[in-house]
Batch of 2 targets.
Target 1
Amino acid sequence: MAKHQFQTEIGQLLKLMTHSLYSNKEIFLRELISNSSDALDKFNYLLLTDPKFKGEDWSGKISIKLDKEDGSITIADNGIGMNEEDLMDNLGTIAKSGTKAFMESLTGDAKKDSNLIGQFGVGFYSVFMIADNVDVISKKAGDDQAYMFSTEGTGEYEVKPVTKESHGTVIYIKLKEDEKEFLDKWRVEEVVKKYSNHIAYPIVLNYSEEETTGEDDKKETKTVQKSEQINAATALWTLPKSELKKEDYIEFYKSISHGDDDPLTYMYNKIEGANEFTTLFYIPKKAPMDMYRADYQPGVKLYVKRVFITDDDKELLPPYLRFVKGVIDSEDLPLNVSRELLQENRILANIKQNAVKRILGAIKKLDSEKMEIFTKEYNKVIKEGIYIDHVNKETLLEIVRYKSSSEEGMISLDDYISRGNSEKKEIYYIVGEDEKVLRNSPLLEAYKKANIEVLIMDDNEVDSIVTPMIGSYKEWNLKDITSIDAPDTKTKEEAEEIAKEFKSLTEKIKKVLGEEVKEVKTTSRLTQSPSCVIKDPSDPMAGMAAMFAQMGQEMPETPLILEINPEHEMIKKLDGLKDDALFDETAWILLDTAKLSEGLEPKDKAAFAQRIASLANKAL
Ligand code: ADP
Ligand code: MG
């Protein structure tokens, strides 16, 4: 008999389960049943593909036994089972980096936290919310020896050889003193129906009941053993649409999402013809916690003719749809399709294409309230899609939302187009880190004055890469206002006239600033600010941020052009100023304040501060 220490993280997790997560304890049933169902799926696959098991008379089953006298509940399956190593690896350690992420994302709200348990692949441990001690007796299919894994949910566990007839797993749970509600037949049935009704295998409840027979004085009470199937035991996606109600879809979602929330939306399709398959997809109301982790758990399971193939294939859907949960069941894929070849399989490629179309179609149809939730959770991954999925780019552009200079909240490109200048067909945008800085950017002044809407893109990391490569949408060209001329408030002739008038001033400023700016010129894009900086539109690097980001490199600095507002008091006064020191100071301040307004930093911050102080001093 060998005693082992739990991995440190599990030790922590166990403490958490026993002491903190006291609400929603019933989910332990959902988690154990889900594990049994997975184990049955795995054996079912072996049975059909591995000659070793050919001819075995098997039908998958989960049974739950309630023993009031003993104060225990036992959950058994005839699935794939575990050997000694599996028990230690699967239950004694956590392979996935999930646990740590789980711990970090705990909110302290017991209900929410227990909802996270299943999401992080730590479902088994939920049993310690209600158990004093647990024995897992398991025999792996094809092996001769069975093993028992026992623990009291403290720091240690034991593994020893035991005897067990057939393959599968039995989980014996000695309930804590005040968790005896789970010995009640009705309570257990209710929980199983709630979370596991559409598990594909029968769940049979074994319990005892007092039965009274006979008349008045000859009444006799005895305990009888009963056995009853308590779930529907049909995989939901095998049922015709006409038989399903909204509640059924939602119930099934709860079982596959290991959660308590309703989905935002779902889509169920059976495709017939040359290529036959069923897809059932859900979009969660909340993005999965691991959505931005490289080791995220994909949400879609692949079946072939109802036989489970994999739940760990990140390519069943494009990565930008990694928040989608559900099932793909193909009639045409070979059962023993190798995982490596799955990606090159034409049938699967076809299913995937169809799936993406349906998912995007459903997103497009969300009502405005749901769309708002969708945008909040998934706008960023949709932008990833725009960058990667050229086939569905147009649809993704219909779905993506942006902030706007014209109103609060998020708008679609179609909203923009519906009120834009349909002769010019241009969509203006500005990209940066900070919404407030962008909204107050001097570059927006002329657009505001001319009543032209500008999209405010403050998701800099993503927008600066994705937006430049959008190009156009419905024949409207997207234009970065920092690299185009301002809307013409002046005619070309007028502008040239002004440029000439201020030529000596702009030249003088350029001389002071030297290499810091590529050019200094007058502009009509400003109304309130004295100056602004723009990226040089003729610079070949300007549109290449995306390329640099893709290569994992920093974008080299593009030269800036300083534009000054000839109508501003300060510029008028500067023109003809005799005091050279003051002129230099002011020229630098024009550049540095313009940079600050765009969220850029002055080159020499200390010098900038000194100049401001000196000017303020003079003004006083
Ligand atoms: P997850 O199910 O997300 O992997 P769990 O903590 O629920 O996480 O289970 C851990 C692992 O233990 C499972 O992945 C599986 O390998 C194994 N396991 C748990 N229950 C069973 C069972 N009834 N039969 C076979 N293996 C099981
Ligand atoms: Mg599990």
Note: The radius of gyration is 33 Å.
Target 2
Amino acid sequence: MCGIIGYTGTASAVDVLIEGLATLEYRGYDSAGVAVVTGNGDPRVRVVKRAGKLANLREMLEGTWLDGTTGVGHTRWATHGEPSDRNSHPHQDADGDLAIIHNGIFENFAELRAGLAADGHEFASDTDTEVIAHLIGRSYDDAGVGGDGADGAVALAGAVRTALRRVEGAFAIAVVDRRSPDTIVASRREAPLVLGHLDGASLLSSDVAGLIRYTRDVEALLDDQVAILTPEGITVTDLDGNTTEGHRYTVDWDIDVAEKQGYPHFMLKEIHEQPGALHETLLGRTRDGRIVLDEQRLDDDDFRHLDKVYVVACGTSYHAGMVAKYALEHWARVPVEVEIASEFRYRDPILTQHTLVVAISQSGETADTLAAAAHARAQRARVVAISNVVGSSLAREADAVLYTRAGPEIAVASTKAFTTQILALELLALFLAQLRRAMFPDEWRDQLRRMETLPDLMEQVFGQETAIRQLAASVAHASYVMFIGRQVGLPIALEGALKLKEISYLHAEGFPAGEMKHGPIALIEQGGPVVALATAGHVRGKIVSNIAEVKARGAMVVAIATEGDTEIKAHADHVIYVPDVHELLYPMLTVVPLQLLAYFIATELGCDVDQPRNLAKTVTVE
Ligand code: AGP
């Protein structure tokens, strides 16, 4: 997610903007920029922007005098267009009269861009944001109104409303214009935007952390509301121009808590961000009734004639790959092998130009996964990357990319990246099924529709957070925790064990439930906790038998089951329910209680949840 700051008042805008962007650095970003309205007599919008960290922008600003008191600033987390100076925000309209910053994804930007280009518009970047800048600029000119000062502000607000009525997707935007030098016009749909009220100035930010040093009197803008900010105050309207108001409240957080938006740790914040992240992963994934990848340097025939798929990854990403195997084989009817990336290239795998290697990496910088992908390409196999970082090394080296769009994941323990990886992989499976005609169109459209319900269904799981926290307190001092599952429940058993061990340092292990009697059942002690993935599906009966096996030896069983399954209560000591979904979609729901369980056990034990000992967020060495 990008960071947004806006200020209009009496102070130097650039100073306020840079300070605000610095408080948003924790969100992760790949470039930064500011736009300031300068020159009292003859106002101009001056844009200064750079790829890289804020220090690069500061360096550029040292040689640039920006004397305005109104401006906007932005830290970019790329979704469309690689990280670069030209793709950095702010972006301007055709005449350079205005500048816009944006967080989110305009789903229909391609058709809007084509229409503007047909009218002679030329673009300096690959971004969806620049398209909207041109759209607002043209709406302003078409309206034929506006002048300087108040008239300019009315014209700008009208132009923004006209343009936003045409866009689809999620956005938070802020616009400055030389024709209304002390005004900022802002709006949002699904992406957060908060306004700051104070005497003699007005501010806005993508989250409270950017405002809190100036004011605690804030107003959350609501979807499809438009805010007009001046030093005298803020007016809010709906998209038709009718006056309304956002949600106004007083912030009682300190800056540290504000960065986590009120959560005690980034990990818990990111667990709760998952429904929104899944929604972002799905945005704009179909065009003209077809599923589309982000960047594809392959033609469809490359995918049609595949005869084998390898999935390579490490850690949590490997567990996502295990789920992908079931979806790729079931939907696309192609044989799949899932491999630990650090093992893959050393076993001399058989690869041809009809082999597809799917490399999964949140960071896109994991050394073993990069090496596996490079080995595959050297053997003429095709490589598709599933990554959360636009322009990452893996994304650049792959033949095609599908971005998870989970937004920056700060906690070392991966959560929202994992569930969005699964969703992206299942989209890839549908994409291949479509190309290989392995599914009828109505079948993969049904699956897409089911996927679109996942964000709301996942929200329901959080209704059991208190019960999970209480369960964690009773398990936190166990000498071990065992996780068992079958089929798509197995990767989640392994992921639940990894989450627990990496943040609580407890001995935790996942097993195929059918394997218990071949050795692991010897570990069962009286009262030893066993978490069983027991949702509805063709192996539920088998799992219930495995639960009986471990119960008979004294285990305390926690079952993750499908809502409505009351029968499971006869077998398990505790039951955590998830909504009923298609069997291949369960992993995105069943992992959430295990993420929460790991989190609450680790906090119960006083562990450093966000930065666990011995671990790094990205492992850039073999
Ligand atoms: C996940 O909780 C771990 N932090 C770790 O296993 C991680 O998934 C692994 O290092 C792979 O990272 P990547 O997805 O960035 O390649």
Note: The pocket of 2-deoxy-2-amino glucitol-6-phosphate is lined by residues 314-317, 361-363, 366, 369, 412-414, 502, 618-619 (CB under 6 Å).
